[in-house]
Amino acid sequence: MKIISLILLTCALAWGQVDYKKQAWTAHWISVPGYSSTEYGIYQFRKEVALSVVPKSYVVYVSADNRYELYVNGEWIGFGPARGDISHWNYEEYDLSPYLKPGKNWIAAKVWNEGEYRPEAQFSVRTGFLLQGVTDPSISTGTSWLGRRDESFAPLPLKVPFYYVAGPGEVRDLNKYTPDWETGKGEGWKPAQNIVRALPNTIVGPYGTTNIWMLQASILPPLERKIERLGKVVKAEGVSLNNFPKVKEPIHLPARKKVSLLLDQGYLTNAYPILQFSGGKGAKISLSYAEALYDDRMKKGNRNEVEGKKFIGRKDSLISAGRRGEVFRTYSYRTYRYLLMEVETQEEALEIEDLQSLFVGFPFQMKARMDSELGEMQDMLEVGWRTARLCAVDTYMDCPYYEQLQYIGDARIQALVSLYNSGDDRLLKNALNLMDQSRQPEGITLSRHPSYTPQYIPTFSLWYIGMLYDYLRYGSDIGFVKQKLSGVHQVLQYFQRYENEEGSLRDLPQWRFTDWVSAKDWKSGEGPFGADGGSAILDFQLLWAYQVAANLEKDLGVNVYREMYLKKAEKLKQMLKKRYWVAERGLFADRSEKDLYSQHANTLAILTETVTPEEAKTIARKLLEEKDLAPASIYFKYYLHLALVKAGRGEEYLSFLDDWRENLRLGLTTWAEMSDVSGSRSDCHAWGSSPNIEFYRILLGIDSDSPGFAKVKIQPHLGDLKQLSGEIPHPNGKISASYTLVDSQWKVQIALPNGVDGTFEWKGQKKALKPGLNDFMIKNSN
Q1: DSSP state of 181
Q2: A Pfam family for this UniProt protein (predicted)?
Q3: Which CATH architecture has domain 2-162+176-222?
Q4: Averaged over 470-478, what is the pLDDT?
Q5: Where in the chain is the domain with CATH 2.60.120.260?
């Protein structure tokens, strides 16, 4: 039988493999019979594979509902699927050859369905596992696979006084767990039950029907995983420690002992905790996770301070089976800076052998560099990059602890951070795909996707247009953008239904969020509305979107709707100036009563060029000086700063960063969700990482000047700096810039990639830039 299998496998390799991305699969979705298909449960699947020799390649496609971990001969080799929706269900490709050996091999998977407790970002139909053998179809999932339920698991829901939708903790009774199940150990295995044959989304079923899960190949790479160690012990009760947990050092706990350890990672992380221990049958062990501790007013204050504060956070709880060499690892990562370990032994002593963690994240690599005389800038870049990384796994996320949801408003900023810092566009393109796929029949996108509860923020659909244009300017795949162009028109058609005869929006449904603002008549992130139902802030966002859509068509050479967009934009400009401009204040009001003002409306007035350059300068001064304007949060300051630069205040950029300085002062290692840093729910929101864009775009001055970053415009804003240098990745290589003040002149060195030219601008002076090194001197002032 082994010889026949080997002959068939050899023939398959010689004749070429079936293209399962275009043809029906031989694999079936499978489950373990006898259990609910939708309730919480963790399941194990395995198949024995005999090989006389190990082939050079042994490719499989793998997916699951909700998610899986894939093992070969006991080694964890993969995790997935990357999140999507039912009509765009991802599978991952693996080459198992490096993990196989001649003779008996075990291919196994742990599959979990968190049921009603599952994260908001997790779509689900029912519990299922799928593996398609590409090199060897005989190993594909079906009734030849064995499965069973892991009865050691139960959910531990988290109760916090905030919006939380990121999944439960775990309760583990290790007396019910079988170690080494991945290599065939344990009892209770039974033939798997077929659910339905798997189909890629390029194929439909009989009579045009679709499969349950419409399968597509994930475009994402494997996640990065690396070992981390906790930094220090903050508090220890019931035990004396030496170097634990900074180094591996056993802790002996006698019978009938209670111990509590508050540990500080030193920085926020996303990681799987890994606890190794022996003995202590019946011992109760819990691990809890928090970004920071709270005072009696539910404020976090300085994140480095824990005295007199309480611990609130997600928790995992387990009961020891008394075995030697036990290892506990959660099936999903945890987000934490502080980890609280509590132990209560029973009649046996317990040996805690080690506690470490396994970091997980999208495999971004930092390819940007900044050298400055100001250490503060490096601190901000480090914190911003950590924030961006923790908010990026298999999608962008608003925050890793509380929601794990990909919101368009957040993702636009996150995407530019990705491009300016790493040049990696894979997660960005995945995000644009998901947003495009979320579009409803009416034309509008969802505000966040994937999310099994639909949420609509119409303004985020407008920012989606901006995000698409950002990728056209800074990315490399212009054809990808062109494929999305029809969706832009559908979004704008949706808004046209709510325009009155002047072009102003009326009765726009759903959540009309702009920014988290605490000011008069701002409610749940919505700006003030007038008695006539109008809002300058909403109309300015629509105007901006029409302008961006017109530029998209122009730069793509399409020009189907461009003239219409420009006419609508001009109509909106005239209406906004007539209805909301207050000449005596030199500002736009938020509503027609002209009683309330915001940084938001006036920021957008500058960005949309609704005002003259001189008026823009006046508005910029008032944005910085006048205190009765509803303030932009750390999120919307991305747009505020762009407006200030556009109005000629770019030399002052470093003075605009007080929100970020407050984060550093209060000990954060990632940027908080809100400008109220002490009271912020989330300590990690990458919509605050805009300095990781603007240090390069505003200070160094490196910007795109054409689609695909084919041309460069470099316009530095150095303020009081005497020296600044750095580089960013570019689709053709990298762009570097260096500025050194020598007496009254700047020594400038700019290097552009092959095939890329551009323009240098400095205080009214212009100079052409060529590929390669550009080395010149320029006067400090006119």
Answers
A1: G
A2: Bac_rhamnosid6H
A3: Sandwich (2.60)
A4: 98
A5: 2-162+176-222, 225-361
| Number of neighbours of residue 369 by Cβ within 10 angstroms | 14
Q: Contact at 8 Å (CB) between 758 and 752?
A: yes
Q: In the CATH hierarchy, which fold is given to the domain comprising 529-656? A: Glycosyltransferase (1.50.10)
Q: What is the CA radius of gyration of the chain?
A: 28
CATH number, span 225-361: 2.60.120.260
Q: Are 360 and 271 in contact (CB under 8 A)?
A: yes
d(CA 246, CA 173): 28
Burial 230-242 (b: 16+ CB within 10 A, else e): beebbebeebeee
Helix/strand/coil (H/E/C) assignment for every residue in 687-743:
HHCCHHHHHHHHHCCEEECCHHHCEEEECCCCCCCCEEEEEEEECCEEEEEEEEEEC
Of the pLDDT bands very low, low, confident and very high (cuts 50, 70, 90), residue 16 is: low
What CATH number does the domain located at 700-782 have?
2.60.420.10
pLDDT digits 0-9 by tens, 579-592: 999 999 999 999 99
Q: What is the Cα–Cα distance from 95 to 325, expressed in whole angstroms? A: 30
Side chain identity at residue 78, one-letter code: G
Please name the fold of domain 362-497+658-697.
Glycosyltransferase (1.50.10)
- What's the CA gap between 729 and 665, in Å, rounded? 31
Per-residue pLDDT band at 2 (split at 50, 70, 90): very low
**Nearest 10 degrees: CA dihedral of 409, 656, 305, 308?**
-80
Terminal Cα-to-Cα distance of the chain (whole angstroms): 86
